[in-house]
Specification:
The protein has about 325 residues and is of the alpha/beta class. It is about 25% helix and about 30% strand.
Length: about 325
């Protein structure tokens, strides 16, 4: 890594739990082989960022606490490239490894970004990264055509799951205590259940053949998701865990031969390419998905907004293009 001491760049850093401050830090200028240097102009807040923002601590060994932490959904302009797929001036979007994307310039492996689809703004292109994780997860499942599916949690990630499942031919039930009726049909929800997953399990006529847990951050929903998964069904525990250990109704899952899927995205390049193409085809999802765009003067407000559930709040984007003028 080459650090140029004569020049500074801006980056936001957690001064204390729940409070980011703008700092001037040394500029990283030289991407290594297979890397690109990107000027970040837009970022999206993911649910997995919130515990890190609220505690100022990493929740995974992959996290890199420091300037720019915690943000990984990014879009911007290539400034320098050491990969033949990209040239300076290219608009790109994708994932910032280590979660330190809330900075003016970031070095990333070229495999973790793709060109921004034609016709999309950088703010809109931020959605490519979370959509890539959804497509990667669903590609691990068997053919969902004609099967019943349930998605637990209808935030931005959950609604992307419902849309892709519906497009692939599943009959989708969406479950959330927050009323998402205003956008349910847009995102392919065939049946909306407003309430907890425990209430859904108690009231559902039949368990679902495909269940996606898109909540994470607590231990209560996975046991209920197991109870809501049908005989020989498939359960994807997608929500990011904050706890190291879970207590599960193992015998129940065992007796019904449930297949449990775990894990993070492994093939970023392939998943991002698919997501960019999918979003270009379904760009009508973007206006209802992106509900809030805040500027750099409201970075803390953006994270705080995401920490609360509300019917009118889905994807929150931070527009960082104006940082150059500050």
């Amino acid at each position: 890594m080459t650090i140029t001491s004569q020049r500074q760049m801006w980056a936001y850093q957690l001064e204390r739990p729940g409070h980011l401050v703008r700092r001037d830090v040394p500029v990283e200028t030289d991407p290594g082989p297979g890397e690109v240097l990107i000027r970040v102009e837009a970022g999206g807040i993911c649910g997995s960022d919130l515990p890190k923002f609220l505690t100022a601590q990493r929740s995974s060994p992959r996290d890199e606490v420091g300037p720019g932490f915690p943000l990984h959904e990014i879009a911007g302009t290539v400034m320098r490239s050491e990969d033949p797929r990209f040239q300076p001036g290219d608009a790109v979007c994708g994932c910032m490894p280590g979660q330190r994307g809330l900075a003016e310039l970031v070095r990333v492996p070229a495999d973790t970004v793709v060109p921004v689809p034609d016709g999309l703004s950088l703010r809109e292109a931020v959605v490519v990264q979370p959509l890539a994780t959804v497509l990667y997860a669903l590609d691990r499942l068997p053919d969902v055509r004609g099967r019943s599916a349930a998605v637990i949690g209808l935030g931005p990630i959950g609604l992307l799951f419902t849309h892709v499942l519906h497009q692939r031919g599943a009959r989708v039930t969406g479950i959330d205590p927050v009323d998402r009726s205003a956008v349910a049909s847009t995102f392919g929800v065939d049946e909306l259940f407003i309430g907890s997953v425990a209430d859904w399990v108690d009231r559902a006529g039949e368990p679902a053949e495909i269940v996606i847990e898109a909540v994470g951050h607590q231990t209560e929903t996975i046991p209920q998701a197991i109870r809501g998964t049908a005989l020989r069904g498939h359960l994807y525990a997608f929500g990011v865990p904050d706890d190291l250990e879970y207590t599960l109704p193992f015998r129940e899952a065992f007796d019904r031969a449930i297949t449990l899927y775990l894990g993070i995205t492994q093939d970023w390049n392939g998943a991002l390419i698919k997501a960019a193409a999918y979003l270009a085809e379904h760009r009508d999802l973007l206006p209802p998905m992106i509900t809030h765009v805040l500027g750099p003067d409201a970075v803390n407000d953006a994270y705080t907004l995401c920490a609360g559930a509300a019917p009118d709040r889905l994807k929150v984007i931070i527009d960082l293009a104006s940082e150059a003028d500050r």
